[in-house]
């Protein structure tokens, strides 16, 4: 048994430090995934994965902190993956997570992991997905992903979730416009946080209007709930809605469907990465550049070039 096997086994048997190490390993060295994932895959699939996204400083961590408390009262084990935004407004997000979820950091059944977006762009949704897998295999019942709703990468990240919560806050002028269209579409539940601030009703109305305009994809009507991230019991309605959504997913069969879609995406990603990596083992980048030059000079077209490469490409796998 090698040391990685020992690490995996130690993680599965409940060692938190090993869990942290496994997540780091998969984050920094994607080739380790092809060794780790096969050993943990059969132990995953049990957790309810919740994605929570919204503008910087909208109170995501504060709301997550409240949700953790409700789940812990139920005796459920919770994992959190908080994506540290590169946003200049919230440079100290990791510190923010620590402060906001302070009381849970000492709870052995809560595992909070912050991930930096810096440097790992592109691979971030993959790294998040792998961290979720590790937490799932570790035995977490609830896994929450917190990410700033800023662009396509964030949309990809929360797509891993069974239930997606989109947070907005009042008094941002045209609040809803700040929610990117792509994010609006993936919301299963909309939370208006800082509902103690003036303008909460207006914010709800705006979201409702946006939802009425958007094409309904399922028979689930996304509820819009108020949350108070600064109050002890400020996210009870959200917590209830998450439960309702989970029940809906299971009963309607959408749970299974969503998971198949997710596995399909992952499978295609792995295949794509694999083909690409192997591509450079059968044809060098210099050769590709040379071919590009020929195509640019109109001596050949891309399809002709690929046809000629076929004998080499057959060795790709
Ligand atoms: N008035 C009011 N303040 C709130 C509420 N919820 C959170 N806050 C405050 O808003 C600030 C930001 O809260 P966070 O929970 O760190 O927000 P976040 O969205 O996680 O922030 P980033 O992760 O940095 O994007 C903190 O000062 C909170 O105390 C609320 O319901 N009402
Ligand atoms: Mg936060």
TrEMBL record:
GO terms for molecular function: GTP binding; GTPase activity; kinase activity. The keyword Kinase applies. The keyword Kinase applies. Keywords: Chaperone, GTP-binding, Hydrolase, Kinase, Nucleotide-binding, Transferase. It comes from the Archaea. Residues 46-190 form the AAA+ ATPase domain. Coiled coil: none annotated. InterPro entries: AAA+_ATPase, GTPase/Isobutyryl-CoA_mutase, GTPase_ArgK, P-loop_NTPase. SMART domains: AAA (SM00382). NCBIfam families: lao (TIGR00750). Belongs to the SIMIBI class G3E GTPase family. ArgK/MeaB subfamily. This is Membrane ATPase/protein kinase.
């Amino acid at each position: 048994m090698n040391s990685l096997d020992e690490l995996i086994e130690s993680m599965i048997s409940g060692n938190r430090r090993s869990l942290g190490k496994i997540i780091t390993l998969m984050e920094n060295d994607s080739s380790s995934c092809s060794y780790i994932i096969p050993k943990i895959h059969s132990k995953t699939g049990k957790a309810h994965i919740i994605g929570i996204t919204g503008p910087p400083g909208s109170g995501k961590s504060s709301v997550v902190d409240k949700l953790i408390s409700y789940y812990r009262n139920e005796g459920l084990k919770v994992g959190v993956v908080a994506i540290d935004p590169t946003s200049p407004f919230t440079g100290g997000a990791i510190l923010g997570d620590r402060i906001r979820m302070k009381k849970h950091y000492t709870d052995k059944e809560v595992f909070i992991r912050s991930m930096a977006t810096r440097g790992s762009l592109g691979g971030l949704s993959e790294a998040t997905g792998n961290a979720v897998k590790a937490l799932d295999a570790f035995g977490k019942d609830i896994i929450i992903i917190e990410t700033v709703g800023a662009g396509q990468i964030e949309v990809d990240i929360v797509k891993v979730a069974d239930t997606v919560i989109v947070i907005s806050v009042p008094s941002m002028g045209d609040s809803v416009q700040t929610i990117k269209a792509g994010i609006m579409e993936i919301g299963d539940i909309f939370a208006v946080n800082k509902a103690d601030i003036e303008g909460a009703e207006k914010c709800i109305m705006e979201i409702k209007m946006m939802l009425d305009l958007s094409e309904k994809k399922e028979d689930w009507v996304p509820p819009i709930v108020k949350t108070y991230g600064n109050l002890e019991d400020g996210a009870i309605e959200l917590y209830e809605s998450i439960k309702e959504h989970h029940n809906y997913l299971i009963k309607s069969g959408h749970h299974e469907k969503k998971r198949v879609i997710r596995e399909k995406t992952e499978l295609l990603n792995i295949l794509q990465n694999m083909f690409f990596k192997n591509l450079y083992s059968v044809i060098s980048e210099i050769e590709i550049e040379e071919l590009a030059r020929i195509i640019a000079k109109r001596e050949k077209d891309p399809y002709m070039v690929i046809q000629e490469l076929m004998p080499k490409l057959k060795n790709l796998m």
